Amino acid sequence: MSDATDTGPVLAADGTPLKRSLNRALRREKLRALMLIAPLLLFVLVTFIAPIADMLFRSVENNIVEDTLPRTVVALESWDRMTGEPPDEAVFAALAEDLVIAVETKTHTRLGSRLNYEMTGISSLFRKSGRSVKRWDLATDGPFREKFIELDEDWADVGMWAMIQIYSSRYTSGYFLNSVDLQLSPDGIAAREEDQRIYITLFKRTIFMSLTIMFSCVLLGYPIAWLLANLSAKASNMLLILVLLPFWTSLLVRTSAWKVLLQQQGVINDVLVWVGLVDDGNRLIMINNQFGTIVAMTHILLPFMILPLYSVMQTIPPTYLRAAKSLGATNWTAFWRVYFPQSVPGIGAGCILVFILSIGYYITPELVGGTKGVFISNRIAYHISSSLNWGLGAALGTILLAAVLLLYWAYDKIVGIDNVKLG
Amino acid sequence: MTDSAKDDGFVVFDHVQKSYDGEILVVKDLNLSIGRGEFLTMLGPSGSGKTTCLMMLAGFETATHGDIRLGGKPINNIPPHKRGIGMVFQNYALFPHMTIAENLSFPLEVRKIGKSDREAKVKRALDMVEMGDFGGRRPAQLSGGQQQRVALARALVFEPELVLMDEPLGALDKQLREKMQFEITHLAHSLGITVVYVTHDQTEALTMSDRVAVFDDGRIQQIAPPDQLYEAPENSFVAQFIGENNTMEGTIEEIKNGVALVKLDSGGMIDAKPINVSKAGERTRVSIRPERVEYNRDRLSPDAHTLKAEVLEFIYMGDIFRTRLRVGGNDEFIVKTRNAPDQRRLTPGETIEIGWMPDDCRALDA
Ligand SMILES: Nc1ncnc2c1ncn2[C@@H]1O[C@H](COP(=O)(O)OP(=O)(O)OP(=O)(O)O)[C@@H](O)[C@H]1O
Ligand SMILES: [Mg+2]
């Protein structure tokens, strides 16, 4: 280099540092690119990111207690539930005041149902009390402690008050604990009653069945993808159409078709009985259980395994197999040592797709799963649309999301996400 | 053919035919016998069936008719992996998910050779192609020429007696190609292996082979050592295909004492050596190599027939002169002359007389 300035930042023709003028030049282009994708970005933000964020938030949000009973919550702060005594008059007075307003705005029943998730009976207690409190005169009718206990002796129940106190904070871990069959009780975190423990089982079943479906898809899809990649163009196009055909039929129709096939008076059982493999009185139960769900979902998700596999296999030239054979490998060795390793990226992609799709699947298990074959997603749907316990539904959904992310991460660690080829 | 390699029928194609679709014969009646240790090249235009022959020999295609014998035994029913034939593919076909050393070790592993033996052989094979330092790399990390060498080493590492190569140098640039041509012939001869080599580059065929089989239209048109192929083509396809060539069409006037008198369509008579023409009146295509054409009257025999030619272009190329002439309406008649002190330099526009030794001018089928 000829002079000392060369060691400093490189300058553009007008004397500004080259980096800065480059950035300035690029900024316009970046801005233009951003504007081009802005509609999509907005769409994704509104329809995808926002609902997820909302779901994550709902799984911990618990404003309802403090919003409905603000004075009671404050008054309850000084109450020590360990004494075993119900709270004093101040709390009941605050409760009366809160309830009058709540009844007017009709929010007390909603609070009742919210607390009912944690302790059965609270819902009816609130509804019943609401009807009476309406008629009270706050200024003259005190003291309220006796009046409430007279109304319903549950108001003297320390456990019930403890529940209100525990759930009075604006954020709660209650939904998540509920999702894993635990409960926030006055004595800390405790297991739920035996007959209410269903979620762990459901999670385990969901994972287990998704894995089974994934493996069945690999087993069934691999040979088909291989055929697709190795048949003549005409035959493989025909086969591809057959593979895609299910996409053109409604999901409900396909699932119902499985009902026809698998039910006890269905086609398969009829054939088995006719052949004599199965006794007429002993027809196989293949639907409304795990078996039915696995069969139907394997069928529905198979294309998602075949397509990425096919796209990877297409790129593996047949000369590799020939080369392996010319080097002395038997058909099997050539396949296993040379072809298979090169198709692993396709298997990875297919497995991720099928697993993630099936872990959140809902319609098919609902229709053919009976009680033993339903997934966690069916439970989520139940909470969202029937029991209206959105918080619990959100917590279950969040756990599902976390599980998928965790598995994805594990896959990346073990196989490497670079080894996944979707097309 | 080298002296050591005599044609003992190590590889034999016996009336082999091949059709892919049951309608067109891609290989029509192939008869070929290759000696142990011979370097045989199959040369021919695209689509002439070279690869098909190689694939039948390797066992990836079955002959529709006829026998292929290896070391005296028919191999039609032996699967490829039991034939023990090394093969170098045009695109090398190195396994991308294995390192170079693993690639070479693969044929040894499937033969259940012990680990230490394997390592020694892999090392020896890699050293042989001067790739000893690259054992730990992946094929994608090598240049084309290096991959080519590895492919060669892999085809040789299990010590096959027969190695097939299908246009192994097709993807390399000219310089590397020439270097590899030399290395492959050198290796083949020093190891004493039999090589069947496919190319459509005639220089490659001529410089590397003991014998060259010229393919066209599913048949061997001629099989001969390079010099014979060049100097004594047996039909007009071979004459056209190998090297540069001047042709003129005409009719045989008479054949006498092994010399044919040909009356050219453009007028004029010339002497030629009858190759696959037999009687007067037959149509013929006479062919003469550019370097065998003479325009110096002193060098021709006194009774030689000559033709009038007009000089169109004279190109000085250093070691030779290349002259383009118009002879009997043909504007593309080429003459090459050595740059000797006594050689006359021609000027465009001048009219000269050209002639040749009757032996150099071959009367072939039209
Ligand atoms: N798998 C196949 N199915 C049908 N026809 C084929 C197949 N392989 C080759 N052919 C046909 O057979 C003929 C000979 O092909 P081949 O590959 O042997 O030619 P080639 O001499 O090796 O040509 P090139 O120099 O271009 O490699 C061609 O017409 C080709 O179209
Ligand atoms: Mg070919």
UniProtKB/TrEMBL annotation, chain A:
Alphabetically ordered keywords of this record: Cell membrane, Membrane, Transmembrane, Transmembrane helix, Transport
Subcellular location: Cell membrane
InterPro entries in alphabetical order: MetI-like (IPR000515), MetI-like_sf (IPR035906)
Principal location: membrane
Pfam families (UniProt xref): BPD_transp_1
PROSITE patterns according to UniProt: ABC_TM1 (PS50928)
ABC transmembrane type-1 domain sequence ranges: 203-411
Family indicated by similarity: Belongs to the binding-protein-dependent transport system permease family. CysTW subfamily.
Name assigned to this protein: ABC transporter permease
Organism: Pseudohalocynthiibacter aestuariivivens
Automatic annotation (TrEMBL), chain B:
EC number(s) from the headed UniProt entry: 7.6.2.11
Record InterPro entries: AAA+_ATPase, ABC_SmlMolc_Importer, ABC_transporter-like_ATP-bd, ABC_transporter-like_CS, Mo/tungstate-bd_C_term_dom, P-loop_NTPase, PotA-like, Transp-assoc_OB_typ2
UniProtKB keywords: ATP-binding, Cell membrane, Membrane, Nucleotide-binding, Translocase, Transport
Matches recorded under Gene3D superfamilies: 2.40.50.100, P-loop containing nucleotide triphosphate hydrolases
UniProt record similarity statement: Belongs to the ABC transporter superfamily. Spermidine/putrescine importer (TC 3.A.1.11.1) family.
Name of the protein in its database record: Spermidine/putrescine import ATP-binding protein PotA
First-level EC class: translocase
PROSITE patterns the record matches: ABC_TRANSPORTER_1, ABC_TRANSPORTER_2
